[in-house]
Amino acid sequence: CPQSPITLVADEFCLAAVPAVQYTVTNNCHNVAVTQSPAAGTALQNGVGEYNVTVSAGSAHCGVVYKVVDRTAPTLTACPGDKFFAPTCTYPVGLPSLMGNLGVSENCGPNVYGIQSPANGVAIQGPGSVMVYFNVSDDAGNINPFQCVTNVTFFAPFNNPPTPMAASFNTTPSSIVTTYTFGATQTVALDYVKPTSECSPITCAVTDVVNSQSPPADPGFTIVDDRHVTLSTFLIGAAARTYNITVQCGDNQNRTTSSYGVVTILPPSFT
Question: Which of 42-46's residues contact partners 24+ apart within 8 Å by CB, and which partners?
């Protein structure tokens, strides 16, 4: 029997046929019947491991070990079409993965590995065209030498990022009664959700506090920060004061105004 192991190359269906084993039989008396198991032509499957083929001649036996290997690279059946992208905000941006648009056929499987060059995530520094190349490999390490090519065009970023949404207030305060104290104050906490923007940080600020008192310059409030305003009765016996608090939120290009609603400060009462 020949020396083992012997490699058989799988066909397009991932099979290889057992060959007729080449052997030598010597008998000086009479002819000897020779059998082979499994018989020549039996299909062997790739990926199973090693196969033992036995040749018997009377009481004499010899064995041959065969291994089926995949030498066929996957085939590219479809290449991604040309792509066009534009970032919402600015460059650099990462090159996207285009592997989902790649069509592949593989004879043995089950795994096929796509190769994209440049790889997804590579930084694109500005507008222009990028040639992206694809090929594929399989579990046996076979790489298709043919590459398909896709042209990816990057345009200038949008100059008008989405306008930030206005602040969303969770509650609207009701009337607040002060105590009978000269210059009594009440700090109102502004309970709102700051909006978000895809392109730049959002900031919010209290931009206006209007009261119903005359004259308008009456110093009945203090803006503490973007979420707190201190309101005051200021004078004993002063009439009720109504305040409308305005909050503006936005990025460096757009600002949106939100009205917090009416806060009423009632004057002190005698008991």
Answer: 42/17, 42/18, 43/15, 43/16, 43/17, 43/18, 44/8, 44/15, 44/16, 44/17, 44/18, 44/68, 45/14, 45/15, 46/10, 46/14, 46/15, 46/16, 46/70, 46/108
Q: List phi, psi (to 5°) of 99.
A: -65, -25
Q: What is the pLDDT of residue 212?
A: 63
Name every residue whose Cβ is closer than 8 Å to that of residue 138 and which is 6 or more positions away in sequence: 70, 73, 74, 106, 108, 109, 111, 112, 113
Q: What is the pLDDT of residues 186-234, one digit of tens each?
A: 788 888 888 877 777 888 888 888 776 655 545 567 888 988 888 765 5
* Residue 101 three-state SS: helix
**Four-CA torsion 215, 217, 220, 222, nearest 10 degrees:** 160
- The structure tokens 């008991």 sit at 271
Q: How many CA atoms lie within 13 A of 86 on its CB side?
A: 8
Distance, CA of 135 to chain centre: 22
Q: Which residue has the tokens 């036996």?
A: 61
Q: Beta 148-154 vs 83-85: how paired, if at all?
A: parallel
Tokens standing for residue 35: 């059998």
The Cβ of residue 193 has, within 10 Å, a number of other Cβ atoms equal to 11
Whole-number Å distance between alpha carbons of 6 and 18: 11
